[in-house]
Amino acid sequence: MRPVRPEYNYLPEKNPALKKIYRIIYYADTKAGKIFDVILLLLILISTALAMMETVSLINVKYNHIFYEIQFVITILFTLEYALRILSIRNKKAYIFSGMGIIDFLAIAPFYLSLIFPVLHFFVIIRMLRMLRIFRIFNLADYQQDGIFIVKALKESSRKIYIFLLFLVIFIIIIGSCMYVIEDGKNGFSSIPQSIYWAVVTITTVGYGDVSPATAGGKFLSIIVMLCGYSIIAVPTGIVTSQFRKQAKSGISCERCGNEENDKNARFCKICGEKF
Amino acid sequence: MRPVRPEYNYLPEKNPALKKIYRIIYYADTKAGKIFDVILLLLILISTALAMMETVSLINVKYNHIFYEIQFVITILFTLEYALRILSIRNKKAYIFSGMGIIDFLAIAPFYLSLIFPVLHFFVIIRMLRMLRIFRIFNLADYQQDGIFIVKALKESSRKIYIFLLFLVIFIIIIGSCMYVIEDGKNGFSSIPQSIYWAVVTITTVGYGDVSPATAGGKFLSIIVMLCGYSIIAVPTGIVTSQFRKQAKSGISCERCGNEENDKNARFCKICGEKF
Amino acid sequence: MRPVRPEYNYLPEKNPALKKIYRIIYYADTKAGKIFDVILLLLILISTALAMMETVSLINVKYNHIFYEIQFVITILFTLEYALRILSIRNKKAYIFSGMGIIDFLAIAPFYLSLIFPVLHFFVIIRMLRMLRIFRIFNLADYQQDGIFIVKALKESSRKIYIFLLFLVIFIIIIGSCMYVIEDGKNGFSSIPQSIYWAVVTITTVGYGDVSPATAGGKFLSIIVMLCGYSIIAVPTGIVTSQFRKQAKSGISCERCGNEENDKNARFCKICGEKF
Amino acid sequence: MRPVRPEYNYLPEKNPALKKIYRIIYYADTKAGKIFDVILLLLILISTALAMMETVSLINVKYNHIFYEIQFVITILFTLEYALRILSIRNKKAYIFSGMGIIDFLAIAPFYLSLIFPVLHFFVIIRMLRMLRIFRIFNLADYQQDGIFIVKALKESSRKIYIFLLFLVIFIIIIGSCMYVIEDGKNGFSSIPQSIYWAVVTITTVGYGDVSPATAGGKFLSIIVMLCGYSIIAVPTGIVTSQFRKQAKSGISCERCGNEENDKNARFCKICGEKF
Fold this sequence. Notes:
Chain A is an all-alpha fold. Chain A contains ten helices and no strands. The interface between B and C is small, with 7 and 7 residues.
């Protein structure tokens, strides 16, 4: 997911009217553009809030119709905006298949589909994702950069985290199976999948307590598992922290020798001596 | 929140009596000042303890009246102190709107307001915050510095944490909505807000267990969410740890070239060679 | 556990037919070898899934016989493969007692033993561990390296973690005993082992809630224990993170002076000046 | 707590018999000394295990008398050992008031006192602490060093952790009070101390679920508190990790200029150029 719009090679249509619309809906550097963005943000918030409140039966009984109508209007506005976004941009394909383009589409599709499949109705909530545009609206360049920093750190450490999760899943399945045998299929450990659910709840230290060991053997194994989980939880933290630290330190890259690890305040490349 | 009093430009009134009072209540370097501070600390502790115990019905039934009277006396003493603090300082505005000045006001206001709005009575507990003065009282300069270190680290990383929380909130709302659809509004997942409450309880690994999935699909999604939460919890830790490490390492800043990353024990700036 | 096959001194039998088989089952660099590995992976997944689903009574009632037959066939295939692995390798002992060799054996043994001791039936799940071969199958060299990185970091920090666990266990036993005395053997704290179970559940922040303090004294001690646990959880994280960071930074080792801490992009040893 | 015996200025009595006894019980470098230590360790383990099992009513009913008798014998042996330890050492005061000396005393005192005050009986478990001698018994020098490393890191960061806990306690009390007001003294939030218990259970992510919010307002505040707690948990981890890293890196200290931060593999002081 890229919360930011890739600026380069995004160009408006040549038609001057579309060019103007383009500037308003894709940028926030004109007055009209800013107003447009703030209205958009409000509509997203209202729409999300409504989708949530609709499910609270006490509220829904009373305001059912009004809610539906507001949601309907907002969806039409979003559809209009989506159409204008496609119309006003030159490289339509690039927009449609960009991260934000897909989110924009998913923000309106579920509503129309819900007219046929009512269950899809709740996926209206996906339009929440459009809030990621918030960075642009408020011109939060610093925040945007920090967001990219976090996303990058997670991406860089994702490979290590996947491997960690693979080990963890194998460990969890084995623990779950042992527990199923020990508790003998009773006390909520009615099957191996159920016992695996317990193992996940335990190792991640969530601990709902809807399934918990009742026999002495089960409790003993639980103690072992919990103490292991205590050490295991350190691994993803270690991975991510190490990556954060590495990124925070990485500095100017030298154009002559390609060294990327010069200190941020360095004046000379520490490998080849090139002056920056 | 700044737990420490900004020393500079805080001056006493010129009147010699007020000057004396100023020295006693703002400083702890005279014997009277120390006694004053210790009494103040005791009053805060007693008052907070009383406010808590008042709510325990077994105790309250018996000592209701005594508690109220003690609280009353302490509040009057605090009010007196507040008045003296304002009177004895030259720049009254600076004190009143400083962090500690506001806390001092909030420590007395709820009690008087509770005579009109009884519900405000419990906010007497705010006077607890006055305990932050503890650093000054015991002259805990080292502790104070470490406190500033922590607060600074949190402030510096706050931007990253806000962004992380924005991502997290969007993730939580989407997970909550999915769970509402999967569990079909049953088993405690009676509405999307309620499901969001479950999602927060799960991802933060609190896991009360008052709402927990009952269907196979719900349990499967829970497992995914918990394993994700396991990796997600690493992010704020990574942010803060990285910041702590950075701060712990940052050392002497060079006056000539502005380099702020010289080792703490360096004798020469590592960028420009300036001798410290 | 070494998820990777130690390449060196693993040689095929001289017989050309066995040499061919060796290449197929031990390597994934021929077409036949790749197909073999993918089929193996599928069989492992199917077998593990079946072993799990067998325990879900609703499913088991219906498909009991089919499940058993599929499992039977897969086990025979695994046995065949195990035999071929032993036959086609020259140093049979090295394979049999290698990490993966033992796992391969454990993947088939429980099934045959379960014909005599039915309880062992569930240990069929151990064949899951064979999935660790996944790294080789998809030629995930980068992933494999990251896996080794994590395992190495845990091994390096294991000594510190053992000591931490020793301290923790002593702390837990003492807290458990105190709690047993305070709660007076009631409210689920029926014995010291039971109270120790509670202490582990609490300090690891799992918090099932099946045992929780009911008296004021017990709640007070719980608060102390939880706040301590909050600080204690930082220790394993600190140990592992520190190790991760250290490993991530460690670079080229100098052949002349043995210095192992040269930067990864260094061209000269920072101790003796040797050129790399 | 110092798990290790401070070697220096610990001298045996001059009497040759006592000198021999001293060597056996204080050191593990003779055969008799090793046997003595292993027996001691076994007695500690047996005694601790018995103290635990005594409280399991099913077991206790049967073996009550035997348990008591074994415990009695072990305590007499420990008393004998304690007497010998005092007798055979020259500086008796130093031993008695050393960490291990106090633990040795506490290992026997509760048993005798329990003849008068039966409740003290359970404190027999304190003798568990004697297990800290395990490092010496098995000559685990590396482990011992790592243990000192961890203890040192915790000590060094203790000041920061205390301040963090002070902030946390103030935060918890205020949150607890707010919750008491919001939930209106119902749903388990029957008093402020009870609500504080809930706040601790929540912020430390233990989450028993014995007290959990039931009103919409309470759930909303809970969500805020949990998300805050998520960021707060990063603080102690950050403190300890940063300290671990700092310690792991600290190396040779220069005798000429006192610089303590030379790399572990440095050959020259990086401040003054002194050769090591």
